[in-house]
Specification:
Elements lengths: L4 E4 L6 H16 L4 E5 L5 H9 L6 E2 L17 E3 L4 H11 L3 E5 L5 E6 H4 L1 H4 L5 H5 L4 H7 L2 E5 L10 E3 L16 E4 L3 H9 L4 E4 L7 H9 L3 E5 L3 H8 L10 E2 L4 E2 L4 H9 L6 E4 L5 E5 L1 H4 L6 E5 L15 E7 L13 E4 L5 H11 L6 H14 L10
Parallel strand pairs: 1-2, 1-16, 2-3, 4-5, 8-9, 9-10, 10-11, 13-14, 16-17, 17-18
Antiparallel strand pairs: 5-6, 6-12, 7-11, 14-15
Helix pairs in contact: 1-13, 1-14, 13-14
Bound molecules: manganese (II) ion.
Manganese (II) ion binds next to loops.
Length: 392
């Protein structure tokens, strides 16, 4: 990967610092490197004039050298709509081998996180109340979850969420209160009629059986919803309890990161949490990725070329957390240290742009008219029209 190189001059930039950053960036690009010219502060009037005269944009204002989330490779986000069922969420986790789903609303905005422990809520939480969760389940979602079909939906479907599986032949007694409940069975017109008479909210007929036309009419007359499914009763009973939506069990107001947060800060905040994967948002609140602890370890540092300075108190802040790959300067050797060999070019001459002109020549390249203009302007400026003591 051809990594981006940041080229920056010193704080309180003068024309040499700015022109050196722009021209060395140009040289790097012509040598096939991705590079961007930066500055440490506002431009003075002279520099503004030079940039305008030679058709250049203001360099990027970048005053912190630390790596941001946007600099590193993170995972694509796995999203799920808040009105999708728990059953669908399990499927998505299995399909993608991802244990954190980011829950979004109808505008694709983050509203929660759904992990395996959220999905296991009813089993793991002492107060997990399946009936009240199932009372929120829509008829269509129940049918979809058990791979079934809605044969009749009353105008205002509502159940108490209690699921009953009827295996006995006679329902005359009230050992099994079915009123407003969800009643699952296979065959048996008498049982079906009894359940409807008791006020069941929904009949679910399994194993590919069908309600007779007469019984379907009877159900309609009593406002009892009907679902038919091909799958067997055991399987249907096991998964129908996953037909409420993730909105009810997700973690609301989840922790998230912005893509312009520094990795070190991100890692520190992660220390206090146990979530496997966190959403990353851009400034439009769109989810752009998923970041985990391992992304924050051994990430690449930003690469810098320092021009026109080599002193710590002159350079971009947190430079020690970045990687300096080159220094091009005509001042005294400052206090910056590196942990590996770099291209270091310090020449006793009037201007950093003098050295950069040499570097163009060494690479067999001619600066174009605008770059030549910047180089000359910086040399005239830094040497005070060749009158400075440092003029060479
Ligand atoms: Mn200079």
């Amino acid at each position: 990967m051809n990594e981006l190189i940041y080229v920056t001059g010193h704080r309180h930039p003068d024309s040499d610092s700015i022109c050196a950053a722009i021209t060395y960036t140009d040289l790097l690009k012509r040598c096939g490197q991705e590079a961007v010219a930066c500055r440490q502060g506002p431009l003075n009037e002279e520099t503004k004039f030079i940039l305008k005269r030679f058709h250049q944009e203001n360099p990027l204002l970048l005053t912190d050298a630390r790596t941001m989330i946007s600099d590193i490779d993170i995972d694509p986000p796995m999203k799920i709509r808040k009105d999708e069922t728990v059953h669908h969420a399990w499927h998505e986790m299995l399909r993608t081998q991802n244990r954190s789903l980011f829950v979004v609303d109808e505008n694709d905005k983050l509203v929660g996180i759904c992990t395996t422990s959220n999905l296991s809520y009813v089993r793991l939480q002492p107060d997990g109340d399946l009936d009240s969760l199932m009372a929120t389940a829509k008829l269509e979602d129940m049918a979809h979850t058990i791979n079934g079909e809605v044969r009749f939906e009353p105008e205002h479907f509502h159940s108490n969420g209690h699921i009953n599986i009827i295996t006995v032949e006679h329902l005359q007694d009230d050992r099994y209160p079915l009123k407003n409940g969800i009643v699952m069975m296979t065959t048996g017109e008498q049982k079906q009629k009894d359940a409807i008479d008791q006020g069941a909210a929904c009949l679910i007929i399994t194993c590919g059986e069908h309600l007779s036309e007469a019984m379907l009419e009877y159900a309609k007359a009593h406002n009892c919803a009907v679902i038919e499914s091909k799958i067997d009763t055991m399987h249907a009973a096991r998964i129908i309890s996953e037909s409420y939506t993730v909105e009810h069990i997700m973690t609301k107001e989840p922790m998230f990161f912005r893509e312009n947060e520094y990795i070190n800060d991100v890692a520190a905040r992660m220390q206090k949490n146990r979530v496997r994967s966190y959403p990353v948002l851009n400034d439009k609140d769109e989810i752009v990725g998923a970041i985990s602890r391992y992304h924050t370890l051994n990430h690449n540092r930003r690469k810098f070329v320092l021009v026109d300075h080599s002193a710590m108190n002159q350079t971009i802040s947190h430079v020690d957390e970045a990687e300096i790959i080159a220094i091009i300067d005509h001042h005294h050797i400052g206090g910056i240290q590196t942990d590996r060999p770099i291209m270091y070019r310090n020449v006793k001459c009037g201007c950093t742009c003098t050295i950069i002109s040499t570097l163009y020549q060494e690479n067999g390249l001619l600066p174009d008219a605008d770059m030549s203009g910047l180089l000359l302007s910086a040399i005239l400026s830094d040497t005070l029209n060749f009158k400075s003591l440092t003029t060479t």
